[in-house]
Amino acid sequence: MKYLLLLSLLSVAAYLAFNRVSDWVDTKKVHDLLSKSSGRILLGLSTALVIVLMLCFAFMQDDAYISFRYSKNLALGNGLSWNIGDKPPVQGYTNFLWVIIMSAPLALGLNIELTITALGILAALLTICFTYLLSLNIFGDRAKAALPVFMLSTNYSFLAYATGGLETQLATLCGVLAWYLASLPMIGGTCTSSFTEGGRNLKKTQNLLLLISIVVAIAYLIRMDTLLVTGPCIIFIAVKILRNDCSSRAKLRYFLSLTLPLAILVTCYSAFSLHKYGSLLPNTFYVKAHSFPAQNILNGAVYIIQFLVFYGWPVILALIFWRRVRTWPWKISADIWLFMLSTICLTIAYSLRVGGDFMEFRFLIPIMPALFIILGKEILRLGPKLIFVALISLPLFSAANAFSLVPRVNGVESFRQLHGHLYNRNENWIGVGKRLKPIFPTTNEELIIGVTPAGAIPYYSDLRSVDLLGLNDRFIAKNGVIIGSRPGHSKGPTLHYLYQSKINLLIGHPQVRHRDQPFLLGAFMRSFCWFMSEKDCRNLEKSSPKVLTMTIDENYLLDMIYLSPSKYVDEALNRQDLTVAYGGGNKSHAH
Asked: Which of 3, 311, 389, 414 would give a disulfide with 18, using CB separation of 3.0 to 4.6 Å?
């Protein structure tokens, strides 16, 4: 917290400096530039720059490969399963439609990383486009509408999540699209002739409501908690229908158009989940549903504060708050602003409840269009000088994040850290999975590995896997031991369950070391055992486990515990694809 306070003070100093610079700029000329046709040229150049930045900030994360594993099994005709032949299968994903979409390029033999990057960038560009159109409908002025778009397009987290492999950007697109469609019959929160019974207008509005309902349903199927963004949109439209002067019959038709497609699609998906997995909720829900509410709220608060401080918002928010205090009492009306604000409040409340996320600000991406539209409205009220200060300072704070000048705290991992797990030579989880593949044939379903990073290693190795953090393991999710309060890393297995699962190679959190570094059991166990209780870790160490070493490349090795006997592991030892680093009191060095 001291670190965050220091950053806040630095942001105050930065804003004072930018405020001084703003004295030299004619803000009226900036407004005229955006309002005239030259703004289109600026828009084209900005779009090209945004694409370049997205490619520069492109990354991949291990969790994406969890979804890809389900997609690959589906593409190969093995169904939506984590391990082939699991009965019953486990639902370790929360992004059903994204998993379905990803099965298409895998079935066609396309490179999944390139495909996902192209799709994510397209979704991000469409998100920016619909954010502008929504802003234009609300503000009624192109220059004003450009402010939220500028803040969104220069936000490092938003640009980076155009890639990464998860459904984040597509869910964000569906959310802003729903709000844009909701803004079409209304200007400034007032009804137009669309809500009438005049034949064409009635039909047109019904079709629009049907489309909104379908978009909201698609958003739900992409990621269930997107309802935090789209739910208030549905309520907003329902309030507008109730307030309209049309007949009860027309209102009923509007309500059916708005709710029926959503209800049908959600019911069908729920029935599918219940039939296939035996539960309406994904397995990940049970991992996160542990009893640390106070700690979760604290973690979630730090998560939100990090976002605000890292992007330089404390000063602007303080100015907005001060202006609002001076204009008390506030006039509150049930218009589009109030309902968009509710999406932000719901998302923040959800982040507090679950303790935030270990991935950099992922939960906040879907609300960014609404967040920046509302903040843009408030900034416009602060006057031209402060508008200019915001336009200069916010991208610079974003750049500081992009160049890792601001380290993350409280277990939040930056994009570089997430990407590095997969590609850094001293971690190289993709390399581990690819190296296991030729050592153990993919047709071998008897060999079982145990891993904490349940993405790239199981995906590339095609081996039967036990997810030691429970996202894809029903027993650990519901009965695992509490190992901490970090989101997604709060439950782990007991030693008894490791043996009961018949895990052959216990990889855990991959222990990669340089070839010149000698193996030391004590150091290995201290680094290895964080996903277990201290008691189980001590018992495992006392059992003098056999530790095997696998060569990843010419310089790096992976150490793992040979837990349960397997003829396939023994054959790999005979072929010297694996060597013994420690076992039965005998040590050897793998070179």
From this structure: 389
d(CA 572, CA 440): 8
Question: Does residue 136 have a pLDDT over 70?
Answer: yes
Side-chain-facing half-sphere of 40: CA atoms under 13 Å: 2
* pLDDT band per the 50, 70, 90 thresholds, residue 28: low
Residue closest to 181 by CA, chosen among 222, 143, 218, 221? 218
Residue pair 131/372 in contact (Cβ under 8 Å)? The answer is: yes
- 321 residue type, one letter: F
Q: What is the mean pLDDT of residues 111-123?
A: 93
Quote the CA–CA distance of 102 and 99 in Å, as a whole number.
5
C-alpha span between 34 and 330 (Å, rounded): 31
- Residue 394 tokens read as 């916010």
Tokens for 195, please give them: 């809500």
Find residue 582's DSSP bridge partners: 547, 587
CA 284 to chain centre: 14
| Secondary structure letter of residue 501 according to DSSP | T
CA 230 to CA 138: how far, in whole Å? 18
- Here the tokens at position 138 are 């609300």
Tokens representing 314? 């404390």
Q: Which residue has the higher pLDDT, 538 or 19?
A: 538
Decide: 112 and 166 in contact? Cβ < 8 Å.
no
Residue pair 520/574 in contact (Cβ under 8 Å)? The answer is: no
The model's pTM is 0.88
Question: Could you give the 3-state DSSP secondary structure of residue 136?
Answer: helix
The per-residue b/e assignment along 512-534, b for 16 or more CB within 10 angstroms, e otherwise, is bbeeeeebebeebbeebbebbbe
